[in-house]
């Protein structure tokens, strides 16, 4: 009987690809399910044989430790770092966000006058 190994809901594509590649390298027999059209189903990586779970779980723990180390070596830049890397793009993006928010909210504010 199949057994859930790893939930993919809320996981980035990079992390999911990292896990898939490592499972393929270890020749683990698995299959995937998606969230479905409406995003309400359980997306996950399932083992075909439940007896493989202890070894696969141990491998997954190692994979997640490696992924954590990978993320620590390449951290996501903060907003301040992004501003200093490309200030013009940052400011233009901020202006666009404010303009879109204003165009969305102004009609509702005018209806209360």
Distance between the termini: 64 Å
Query: What is the CATH topology descriptor of the largest domain?
Result: Alpha-Beta Plaits
Number of strands: 3
Output the structural class.
Answer: mainly alpha
Assign the CATH architecture of the largest domain.
Answer: 2-Layer Sandwich
Q: What is the share of helical residues?
A: 55-70%
The stretches of 5 or more residues where confidence is low (pLDDT under 50) are none
Q: What is the CATH homology-level superfamily of the largest domain?
A: UreE, C-terminal domain
- Global shape: elongated
Mean of residue pLDDT values: 89
Cα radius of gyration in angstroms: 22 Å
- Please give the CATH class of the largest domain: Alpha Beta
Count of all domains? 2
How do the strands line up in the largest sheet?
1-3-2
Beta-strand share of residues: 5-15%
- What's the helix count? 4
Q: What is the string of helix and strand elements?
A: EHEEHHH
Largest sheet: 3 strands, antiparallel
Describe the protein.
With 113 residues, this protein is mainly α. It is elongated and about 65 Å long. It is built from four helices and three strands. 58% of the residues lie in helices and 12% in strands. The longest helix has 24 residues, at 87-110. Strands 1-3-2 form a three-stranded antiparallel sheet, with helices on one face. The N and C termini lie far apart (64 Å). Helix 1 packs across helix 2 (53-73) and helix 3 (79-85) crosses helix 4. It has helices at residues 13-25, 53-73, 79-85, 87-110, and strands at 3-7, 30-33, 44-47. The chain has two domains: 3-73, 2-Layer Sandwich (Alpha-Beta Plaits); 79-110, no CATH class.
């Amino acid at each position: 009987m199949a057994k859930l190994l790893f939930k993919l809901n809320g996981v980035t594509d990079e992390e999911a690809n990292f896990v898939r590649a490592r499972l393929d390298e270890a020749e683990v027999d698995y299959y995937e399910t998606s969230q479905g059209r409406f995003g309400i189903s359980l997306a996950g990586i399932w083992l075909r044989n439940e007896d493989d779970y202890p070894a696969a779980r141990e491998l997954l723990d190692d994979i997640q430790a490696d992924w954590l180390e990978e993320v620590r070596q390449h951290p996501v830049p903060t907003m301040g770092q992004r501003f200093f890397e490309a200030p013009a793009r940052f400011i233009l993006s901020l202006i666009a966000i404010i303009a879109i928010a204003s165009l969305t909210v102004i009609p509702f504010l005018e209806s209360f006058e």
